[in-house]
Amino acid sequence: MRETDIAIIGGGPAGLSAAIYAASLGAKITLIDDGLELGGQLIKQTHKFFGSEAQFAGIRGIEIAKKLIQEIERCKNIELITNATVTGYYEDEVITIIQGADGNIMKKLKAQRIIVATGASENMLPFINNDLPGVYGAGAVQTLMNLYGVVPGNNVLMVGAGNIGLIVSYQLLQAGIKVEAIVEALPKIGGYLVHASKIRRLGVPIYTSHSLKEVYGTDWVEKAVISKVNKNFEFIPETEKELEVDTICLAVGLSPLSDLLWQAGCQMKYIVELGGYVALRDDHMKSSLDNIYIAGDVAGIEEASSAMLEGKIAGLNAAVSLGYRVDNFLELNINLRKELKELRANPLSEKVKIGLEKALIKREVD
Amino acid sequence: MKDETIICRCEDVTWGEIRQALEKGYTTLNEIKRITRAGMGRCQGKTCQSILLREIAKYCNKKIEEVDVTTFRPPTKPVKLGTLAGDNDD
């Protein structure tokens, strides 16, 4: 059986950062990712990042992925297993990996530490005809458009005015596709106003306290019915509006992909502010189990910038817990946590901070 | 929600089927899964589980965290028996 010091599951911003950091301390890393190429969601993000210089502000997601992947390729102690899914966690810290387009190869790996950076899955909405062709998640729209250069449709209704809904709407407009409207069930726009203003200036209406009720069409989406909702998100009768669209793009939030953490027996908690069930963790990103660390969206839905910092913290601490040394360990930890705190010092992170407080295992001071 | 709304798109389970199960007294995620097959398809509940938790909670007048989740077991996605039996471990 293969053996490694640290298995990192997921090659998105969190997993890549964790791998680079842990490898720099000398640990033997095995990085497993289900994509054909590394980078996770970064490789479809054509927009520039906010934040400070340390978090690649002003650089497009796709360029950040390239930088991280170049660093990974320079590290001789990182083994890559791509196009592969970790399907199970078993006793004695063994994980099973299923690899290849046909899923014909199985590998077993024993790792002393595991960093779970599996990210999140997109939420679905229950509405009539939600199985018609033309109903997409925002992630799929980004993959089609930004990765493969394929337009998803001609007239789009965007559901959700969080940052993903706003950014993907703008990308659709840039690709020359008509965005009929954006609906948002909450009474106000969830994403950054700078994104919302850009879209409004281009003539796209954003309907708050509205949601998608039904979709109609014979072979594909031809029409959407939206309606006003009350504060319990129930449709208000006789407020329906019909829109002629051929594409529905759902950007209604993400849920942490925590299956492996459940399997491993980590202490889990439903924390609505973090997007669903997450593993409890200490400020080293260590779960309730000594050999399992978490980072990125699986630890709570946030952004790539915070995922990268959590990845660094998890990578650093997992490597140090195995006896790898770095001179200024305490200082590094303090600085990374400080960077995270600064990143979250904005009004949109208020909710996340409440959630993180609920998920924190207080560590005894050593 | 209208009965014909698809809740589990892997197994084509509608809200009508879920509602009937709830009305018969199957009010845990495990029971609903076993009776209707919701969550037993290709994505293993990654799409429908959060909708089901929310609807069960609403039906039973509970908080979402008070609804029991199902047991997570390997594998997280369908794996061919041949792959498991072959053990191409290198």
Summarize this structure as a short list of keywords or feature phrases.
heterodimer; A: 366 residues; alpha/beta; FAD/NAD(P)-binding domain; seven-stranded mixed sheet; B: mainly alpha; Arc Repressor Mutant, subunit A; 2 strands
Description:
Chain A has nine helices and 19 strands. Chain A is of the alpha/beta class. Chain A has two domains: 226 residues, 3-Layer(bba) Sandwich (FAD/NAD(P)-binding domain), CATH 3.50.50; 127 residues, FAD/NAD(P)-binding domain, CATH 3.50.50. In chain A, strands 1, 2, 3, 4, 5, 6 and 19 form a seven-stranded mixed β-sheet that branches. In chain A, strands 8-15-9-10-11 form a five-stranded parallel β-sheet. A three-stranded antiparallel β-sheet of chain A has the order 12-13-14, with no helix packed on it. In chain A, strand 4 and strand 5 form a beta hairpin. The two termini of chain A are 36 Å apart. The model of chain A has no long low-confidence stretch (mean pLDDT 94). Chain B has one domain: Arc Repressor Mutant, subunit A. Chain B has 90 residues and is mostly helical. In chain B, a hairpin with a 4-residue loop joins strand 1 and strand 2. In chain B, strands 1-2 form a two-stranded antiparallel sheet. Helices cover 39% and strands 6% of the residues of chain B.
